[in-house]
């Protein structure tokens, strides 16, 4: 998660997708990204990459 002009931006570690929030609070930005399907753990993954990674781990 990186600081953006007016908030925070999350970038996927596997592809080039990004998600930008308008809040100054990093915890709120992280929560909002997670609500929108982003996986933020050791890796930051967009919803598509998180779904693919979860599927791969199960099979």
Please report the number of helical segments.
Answer: 2
> How can the largest sheet be summarized?
3 strands, antiparallel
Amino- and carboxy-terminal Cα gap: 30 Å
Q: Which structural class best describes the helix and strand composition? A: alpha+beta
* CA-based shape: globular
* Whole-number count of domains: 1
Q: What percentage of amino acids are in beta strands?
A: 25-35%
Residue share in helix = 25-40%
| pLDDT averaged over residues | 86
Q: Summarize the helix and strand pattern as letters.
A: EEEHEEH
- Overall strand count: 5
Q: Radius of gyration from the CA trace? A: 12 Å
Key features of this structure:
59 residues, 5 strands, 37% helix, globular
Short note summarizing the structure:
By secondary structure, this protein is α+β, with helices and mostly antiparallel strands. It is built from 2 helices and 5 strands.
Layout of strands and helices, then pairs:
Elements lengths: L1 E3 L2 E5 L6 E4 L4 H10 L3 E2 L3 E2 L1 H12 L1
Fold and architecture overview:
This protein has 59 residues and is of the alpha+beta class. It has one domain. Helix content is 37%, strand content 27%. It is built from 2 helices and 5 strands, in the order E-E-E-H-E-E-H. The protein has helices at residues 26-35, 47-58, and strands at residues 2-4, 7-11, 18-21, 39-40, 44-45. Strands 1-2-3 form a 3-stranded antiparallel sheet, covered by helices on one side. A two-stranded antiparallel sheet has the order 4-5. Strand 4 and strand 5 (44-45) form a beta hairpin. The longest helix has 12 residues, at 47-58. The chain is globular, with a radius of gyration of 12 Å. The model has no long low-confidence stretch (mean pLDDT 86).
